[in-house]
Design a protein that fits this description.
Shape: elongated
CATH architecture of the largest domain: 3-Layer(aba) Sandwich
Radius of gyration: 26 Å
CATH class of the largest domain: Alpha Beta
Oligomer: single chain
Number of strands: 12
Strand content: 5-15%
CATH superfamily of the largest domain: Glutaredoxin
Number of domains: 2
Structural class: alpha+beta
Largest sheet: 5 strands, mixed
Mean pLDDT: 77
Strand order of the largest sheet: 6-5-4-10-11
Helix content: 25-40%
Number of helices: 6
Length: 287
């Protein structure tokens, strides 16, 4: 009897855990309601391999102080450039990849602004220099760093023409909605040599400082880029108009939670059946 009660307790506990797993993402979406919620990820968001292609230096953008600049301003003979194309309004993977890059840079022996430059360009033509400054501040939040080093971290915005041209030349294949405010885009960085030749793609939102540093050094030496395995993390754009999670992602979460509950319940039920059926009947006493 005690074994049956224990199994029931485990079953209730397991079902409660499964329910929490199903409800947690929805609760997270509610917490971030002011920031918007997820869109369905687009399978077309990816990096195109453009290794050893040269990024045009004449593309024009606006920096975080409102000054007009061209990409050529950041190119020099021996200072590689680490490019990233997020959306500054995105508080999910785009913010995570910027913070991940800042964290990796802070742990490197190479000096930002001296040995290499970081250039981030927003995918959204609606982003402003003020939003570029805010995105940079969020990226470095909680990371001790000298303000002098941050002179090598450049957050740019631009019009649609130049943004699309840069994305095409870097191989950043992104998808946007009709209003051009929400984006599905691959996350990662693109490292170029000092003259803007693409050397390497590093994918994801977190970056190993040792690998990033060795890649920058190789780019500084003018080495030719070779393909690396693509491990893409999609950045889900916001759907602030509805404040609802994307249907495909929501269905996946619910299905996974239900499947977890069924598997746990089945395992406990099978264990309970074996325990009950395995018990020996008490011997019959004849009087």
């Amino acid at each position: 009897m005690e074994g049956i009660l224990n199994c029931k307790r485990w079953l209730v506990c397991a079902l409660s855990i499964a329910e929490c797993l199903m409800l947690a993402p929805a609760a997270h979406a509610q917490i971030n309601l002011n920031e918007g919620s997820y869109m369905t990820p687009a399978v077309d968001a990816h990096f195109d391999d453009r290794l050893n292609k040269v990024v045009p230096p004449n593309l024009s953008f606006t920096n975080s102080t409102g000054d007009k600049v061209t990409l050529g301003h950041y190119f020099s003979a021996h200072e590689p450039v680490v490019f990233m194309m997020p959306s500054y309004k995105c508080k999910l993977d785009c913010a995570a990849e910027m913070h991940g890059l800042a964290l990796a840079v802070s742990n490197m022996q190479l000096v930002l602004g001296k040995d290499f430059q970081v250039v981030t360009v927003s995918l959204s033509p609606h982003d402003t220099p003020e939003e570029a400054r805010s995105a940079a501040a969020r990226a470095w939040q909680g990371i001790p760093v000298s303000s002098k080093l941050l002179t090598g971290w450049h957050t740019l915005v631009g019009d649609e023409k130049n943004v699309v041209l840069l994305a095409g030349n870097l191989g950043v294949h992104f998808v946007q909605d009709a209003a051009k405010r929400n984006f599905n885009n691959p996350t990662g960085v693109i490292i170029t040599t000092g003259n803007g030749r693409i050397y390497r793609y590093i994918y994801g939102t977190q970056f190993m400082s040792t690998y990033l540093q060795s890649s920058i050094k190789a780019a500084a030496d003018g080495k030719r880029g070779i393909p690396t395995e693509q491990m893409i993390t999609y950045c889900y754009g916001y759907k602030s108009a509805t404040g609802r999670i994307g249907r495909l992602l929501q269905d996946l979460i619910v299905t996974s939670g239900c499947l977890t509950a069924v598997l746990v319940a089945g395992f406990i039920g099978l264990s309970l059946f074996k325990e009950v059926s395995g018990r020996k009947k008490p011997p019959t006493v004849t009087v």
